From TrEMBL:
Pfam families to which the protein is assigned, alphabetical: NDC10_II
Coiled-coil residues: none
Alphabetized Gene3D superfamilies for the sequence: Centromere DNA-binding protein complex CBF3 subunit, domain 2
Signal peptide: none
Protein name according to UniProt: Ndc10 domain-containing protein
A molecular function GO annotation: DNA binding
Gene: ABSGL_01811.1 scaffold 2319
Span list, region Disordered: 1-30
Domain Ndc10: 13-116
Length: 117
């Protein structure tokens, strides 16, 4: 078995990165004043959705409190929403009783006529 040598990597310049993202966005007609940081907000919100601690998100992204609170984590805190809905705040999983119900076959056929195919 022949072992391949490691690939040579080269740092991508900021201008090349920005230009490539600009082309990718403009091709389908997307206009944005953000290029290199376009995914920052969504990645922070996705991390928040799975209960990553805000301090950890801030450290990973190297943001200060003002930036992360004002620009990226603009939604309500998950633990507060869970508490108000009657669910425990200490876990990201909870049980929905309706998920255990099996709807009648007649209803399934009305909603999804091709269900048997």
């Amino acid at each position: 078995m022949k072992i391949k040598p490691p690939r040579q990597t080269q740092e991508w310049s900021y201008s090349s990165h920005r230009e490539s993202i600009g082309k990718a966005l403009s091709s389908p007609g997307i206009r944005s004043n953000k290029k290199t940081h376009i995914n920052c907000g969504s990645s922070a919100r996705m991390a928040g959705n799975v209960c990553v601690n805000v301090d950890q998100i801030r450290r990973q992204c190297r943001w200060n409190n003002t930036t992360i609170n004002g620009a990226y984590l603009t939604s309500l805190p998950r633990s507060v929403v869970r508490s108000l809905a009657g669910f425990p705040t200490y876990t990201r999983f909870f049980y929905l009783a309706r998920a255990a119900l099996n709807p009648p076959t007649s209803l399934c056929k009305k909603l999804f006529p091709a269900i048997g195919e």
